[in-house]
Amino acid sequence: MKKYLIGFCFGIFVSISSVSYASDIIQVIKSSVIINLNGKDLNFLGSGYEILNYEGNNYVPIRFIAEKMDIPIAYNSEKNKIILGSKEPIGLKNLLKSELKDIEYINIVYGDGIKLRIDNIDDIQKILTKVEQITLNISKNQELKYGYLYTMYLVTKEKEIPYSSNLQINEIVFEPTPVTDELDAIIMGFKPKK
């Protein structure tokens, strides 16, 4: 009898825990609705996006619509916020997904192929101070750019954090600012003469 009672209690526990776990799960249906934007039907095929229907409401991926409407879009993980348009600047530290701590050295690859390693503490601090000052706005023109003055890799024990002078971060193009121009001048100042 004791075994049955323990088994019964265990069964109730599993049932209750699975019900509470399942309460966060919703069922959606792929929708075949056609979206017409400014007189043009949008084609979702091959885009990697799906329209979903939940309780009679269609849910459309905001990134897909924003891109089709030429509205810059980004995600600010610090604030857990989706940003449409370029009104709110985003800190470069946030975009690089790093607090920029424990940088051991900085590798720089210039556009002409020259490579440089910076491991002087004062030089690293000079660069990091400027990087921490940078806030960026999403560019209205999201065409990816080719070519760059330099790409910089901030290196910690665990990872390399890349930053390119062409201001393309996480496949989003950002507008240059006076502070990014100052960083460019600092980095170009380190470039060895040929």
Write the layout of secondary structure elements.
Blueprint: H1 2-22, E1 29-30, E2 36-37, E3 40-41, E4 52-54, E5 57-59, H2 62-68, E6 73-76, E7 81-84, E8 90-91, H3 92-95, E9 105-110, E10 115-118, H4 121-133, E11 135-136, E12 150-155, E13 160-164, E14 168-169, E15 172-173, H5 178-189
Helix pairs in contact: 4-5
Signal peptide: 1-22
Keywords: Signal
Protein name: Copper amine oxidase-like N-terminal domain-containing protein
- Quickly name the level 1 CATH class of the largest domain: Alpha Beta
Give the total of beta strands: 15
Looking at the structure, the CATH topology of the largest domain is Dna Ligase, domain 1
Quickly give the structural class: alpha+beta
Spatial sequence of strands, sheet with the most strands: 10-9-12-13
Percent helix range: 25-40%
Model regions low in confidence, pLDDT < 50 over at least 5 residues: none
The helix/strand order is HEEEEEHEEEHEEHEEEEEH
Tell me which oligomeric state these chains represent: single chain
Mean pLDDT rating? 81
The radius of gyration computed from the alpha-carbon positions, rounded to a whole number of angstroms, is 25 Å
Number of domains: 2
CA-based shape: elongated
Percent of sequence in beta strands: 25-35%
CATH structural architecture of the largest domain: 2-Layer Sandwich
Instruction: Please report the distance between the alpha carbons of the first and last residues.
Output: 88 Å
Taking the sheet with the most strands, its summary is:
4 strands, antiparallel
- Number of discrete helical segments: 5
Protein name: Copper amine oxidase-like N-terminal domain-containing protein
Organism: Paenibacillus ehimensis
Signal peptide: 1-22
Keywords: Signal
